[in-house]
Amino acid sequence: MSNKQGTVFVVSGPSGTGKGTIMEEYFKRYPHDNTFLSISATTRSPRPSDIEGVTYYFKTKEEFEDLIANDGLAEWAEFCGNYYGTPKKPVNDMVAEGKNVVLEIEVQGGCSVMEKFDNAVGIFVLPPSFTELKNRLVSRNTETIDVIESRLSRAREEIQEIDKYEYILINDDLDKAVETFRSILIGESQRVIRNKNIIKEVCEIC
Amino acid sequence: MSNKQGTVFVVSGPSGTGKGTIMEEYFKRYPHDNTFLSISATTRSPRPSDIEGVTYYFKTKEEFEDLIANDGLAEWAEFCGNYYGTPKKPVNDMVAEGKNVVLEIEVQGGCSVMEKFDNAVGIFVLPPSFTELKNRLVSRNTETIDVIESRLSRAREEIQEIDKYEYILINDDLDKAVETFRSILIGESQRVIRNKNIIKEVCEIC
């Protein structure tokens, strides 16, 4: 048991806000921050580029259903015939060891996950504006206008959940967003409620 | 009226923890953070090095007592026959303009000030240990052992108030303390509750 517990950070935001890019850049830039990305479990078949325990925990359907039955998942969903979910144990283990864990997850799953971990901190990634979000989705050039409109409509709905999150992170400039994300993590680690042991230790040596 | 209000940060901590040094270094290092140190009012006579509105607001005894009578001070105290206090108006004006204001103040005054400003954020500066605090006070070589013991005893009392503060800042290494202080400021500026206008703006452009 570490002197200081880690913190679970739930990073959500509408599709196209670039939360994945911010996380990727943060972990590349700060590999020694004692902060780790949560690994999802899935029943889909591994691809050649997959690494067990790095890209996913690969499970059989039976194993996954056991996890569901034993309340072993913070959230899960079925998608194209496969299960995807967040196993609680590795997250709780890392937190107990004093590590921060980042869960990058869409808004509905994020709200569910925040209820499952004590003192989890929600960060909601916002586009600079909806016009900009639309431009980003259009410029990907991979989706029809109908799909884009449905994504925007979902984004509008998702933003209604923002009060369940503690922080906003506006992805206007990647560099700034990464540094701001890191400041949120550092700031949270300094909260009085997260440092009872350390405060006690400072005082005990009186 | 700015789109985003600023925040009042109350920085307190026992004598000898180095809160003044951290603030001085922070303002030297980051003069463009839109963050300003609150200026106290006093009835003491200006010294040659004093600059009105920079080191202090200099007031007559009558002016100061008017401020007290009109609830114009967030806190005040009498010391060696002179009044010292924190005028509310300049702090509220800066916050309305979107600036952050830092009040560096001892613990008793800090607790009082936090009640006077909406959403003020308290940061409690701690020594790495009480042994280290004692060493620092001894090595100043300006005070008798009795005075040092009384300071330490007061420090122990002051730390009992730490739950009224949101954050701790351990002054082990000045450079690290300055950067951590800045992260707390940046993190707080991203809180959902402080960004209602910006969230509305992002959504309005749907």
What do these coordinates show?
2 copies of one chain form a homodimer. Chain A is an alpha/beta fold. Chain A has a domain at 8-38 and 100-204: Rossmann fold (3-Layer(aba) Sandwich). Chain A contains 8 helices and 9 strands. Chain A has helices at residues 19-29, 61-69, 88-96, 107-116, 130-140, 145-159, 174-189, 196-204; strands at residues 8-12, 35-37, 41-42, 57-58, 73-79, 82-87, 100-104, 121-126, 167-170. In chain A, the strands form 2 sheets. The first copy, chain A, has a 5-stranded parallel sheet, sandwiched between helices. In chain A, strand 5 and strand 6 (82-87) form a beta hairpin. In chain A, helix 1 crosses helix 7 (174-189) and helix 5 runs antiparallel to helix 6. Chains A and B meet through helix 6, strand 9, helix 7 and helix 8 of A and helix 6, strand 9, helix 7 and helix 8 of B.
Mean pLDDT of chain A: 92
Which pair of chains has the greatest number of interface residues, and how are they split between the two chains?
A-B, 37 and 37 residues
Broad CATH class of the domain at 8-38 and 100-204 in chain A: Alpha Beta
Structural class computed from helices and strand pairing of chain A: alpha/beta
CATH topology value of the domain at 8-38 and 100-204 in chain A = Rossmann fold
Count of distinct strands of chain A: 9
Taking the alpha carbons of the first and last residues of chain A, their distance comes to 24 Å
Q: What's the number of helices of chain A?
A: 8
**Percentage of residues in helical conformation of chain A:** 40-55%
- In CATH terms, the superfamily of the domain at 8-38 and 100-204 in chain A is P-loop containing nucleotide triphosphate hydrolases
The H-and-E topology of chain A, N to C, reads as EHEEEHEEHEHEHHEHH
Strand order in the largest sheet of chain A:
2-7-1-8-9
Calculate Rg of chain A over CA atoms. 18 Å
Quaternary state of this entry equals homodimer
Main β-sheet of chain A: number of strands, strand sense, barrel status?
Answer: 5 strands, parallel
CATH architecture of the domain at 8-38 and 100-204 in chain A: 3-Layer(aba) Sandwich
